[in-house]
Amino acid sequence: MPATSKNKAAALPKRRETAASRVYETLRDEISGGRFRVGDRLTEGALAEEMTVSRTPVREALRRLESEGFVTISPHAGALVKGWSAQDARDVFETRAIIEAAAAGRAARNATASDVQALDDLARRMEAAAGGPLQDVAGYSEMNRDFHARILHLSGNRRIEGIALNLMDLGFLVRSYRLFGQEDVDRSLSDHRQLVTAIRDGEADWAAAVMRAHILAAARIFKGTHDVPEPTGQSPLKKESDKENIT
Amino acid sequence: MPATSKNKAAALPKRRETAASRVYETLRDEISGGRFRVGDRLTEGALAEEMTVSRTPVREALRRLESEGFVTISPHAGALVKGWSAQDARDVFETRAIIEAAAAGRAARNATASDVQALDDLARRMEAAAGGPLQDVAGYSEMNRDFHARILHLSGNRRIEGIALNLMDLGFLVRSYRLFGQEDVDRSLSDHRQLVTAIRDGEADWAAAVMRAHILAAARIFKGTHDVPEPTGQSPLKKESDKENIT
DNA sequence: AACCTACATATCGTATACAATAACGCAAGA
DNA sequence: TCTTGCGTTATTGTATACGATATGTAGGTT
Predict the structure, then answer these.
(1) Cβ within 8 Å of residue B121, ≥6 positions away
(2) Between the CA of A13 and the C1' of C5, what is the distance in angstroms?
(3) Are residues A30 and A62 in the same domain?
(4) Does residue B10 lie within any of the structural domains?
């Protein structure tokens, strides 16, 4: 329905954000949150009506989601929610291991005392939060992201930082912490402690090796419990799952 | 003026592309080609009129260019041609060195005999083309891109492949081969030979090391002759200075 | 003279209207 | 029953109209 710009009081006018960015964030969270099935069609008109905006900002949001790998868009066919194969997950973790290991090594050379202090504080807070059986998964995940982001920033290479952050924020990874058992969390925390120490002492090679192991360990957990959301089922209609895997 | 889709006979009537993609490609080539100066304002309306389309496809093209790092867009201020500082260039080369070295190592493990054959053919063709003083810079550059792209593909990691290709295709790097002297070309070709050999023999570590050296050497050449100052922030009074930026 | 305010203008963000295309179904024939 | 062709329809691509916002300027006040 034509929302005549009068409905600003309707939803969330708090921020001075644009409608396009709001639609983008909403859709991104919803896709990550599992509202849609892989292969689902995202129709501009339907989404526009649902969010009480016009097709223009929806369209913009979809294009952005495509560039970040959440949906695929075909010239006249529209947007489909993109699926993740086991191979995709493996590739992402492997790439993260490579890039973040290098970043950790650089961070070990660049970090100042206060940088190390901040990292250490964060690591301790994570340990405190994980005292019990990890209740606040979202909060822990957020702290973990922050920990990695700080190290990436300390690498001094903004390109590395941006690429690695993108990889970290991919939808199918965001919620993977639910898969962590107690011992996994313990090992992860131990890795973090080692990273802080290695960075504090300027031991670049050690920092890189720890980071690599840290990420590959997470990959193993993810892989073990998350084997193949293959396109097998998923066909409410006929054959929609043409699979984007190039191979 | 409503261009009633009849003017397709103007330039490229062959393809059935969308207007947005045409605008995107045109703008990308023009930015890479140096038509604009760093910091130039790209106004939607002006570009739309120039290309005889509406603002909508222009807008879409600009957003895409932003996501690929060619322009920066501020919420209500519009798009500016993005500049590359020496630090940016350094970051890109360093990141390429890290990622492509890893890719070369994986390629050494995955490559089949025919893969190696294809690489070797390409390397030989490049040597032949560089017999003289490198006349066809564009052609040579294209072959070089293909060489690297093949190795990236052989890594078996599509994520690595995509990231590295993006880094390779950044505007300010595309034409950097003009900076290569004869000895630089010779060393580059020698690197390629070594890469082919290392991959053929499955020597992952050697392949990775050669690739790393290969890219960092290129970085050094680029850096030496291309030391540019910062994009000077965005001076608000900065006026349009289009046309004529050869370099 | 400096500063603040109000207005004018240019450009972006969004809504809506229209055109083009591809998916879908239905019917007709073999 | 299967195939094939055409027409309908839903959805995307593009154009245009309108509203919102930032910037720049002129004029008035202190």
Answers:
(1) none
(2) 28
(3) yes
(4) no
Question: What are the CA-CA distances from residue A53 to residues A143, A172, A217 (Å)?
Answer: 34, 27, 43
Question: Does residue A145 lie in a domain region?
Answer: yes
Domain ends where: A52, A81, A110? Answer: A81
Q: Hey, what are B49's tokens? A: 């009129």
Residue A130 carries which DSSP code? T
Q: Which residue of B has its CA nearest to A156?
A: B91
CB–CB of B158 and A18 under 8 A? no
- Tens-place pLDDT, residues A97-118: 999 999 999 999 999 999 999 9
Query: Is residue B219 within 8 Å of residue B94, measured between CB atoms?
Result: yes
Looking at the predicted structure, is the pLDDT value of residue B45 above 90? yes
Which chain B residues are closer than 8 Å to A94 by Cβ?
157, 159-160
Q: Is A63 on the interface with B (CB under 8 A)?
A: yes
- Phi, psi angle pair for A114, to nearest 5°: -70, -30
Q: What pLDDT is recorded for position A222?
A: 77
- Give the mean pLDDT of A223-244: 38
Question: Across residues A207-218, what is the average pLDDT?
Answer: 96
Residue type for position B46: A
- What CATH number corresponds to the domain at position A96? 1.20.120.530
A73 and A164: one domain?
Answer: no
CB contact under 8 A, B91 and A67: no
Contacts of A60 (CB under 8 A, 6+ apart): A20, A23, A24, B59, B60, B63
For A32-64, how does the pLDDT look when each residue is reduced to its tens digit (9 = 90+)?
Answer: 888 898 889 999 999 999 999 999 999 999 999
Indicate the Cα dihedral angle A234, A235, A236, A240, nearest 10°: 120
Q: Is the confidence at residue A221, as pLDDT, over 60? A: yes
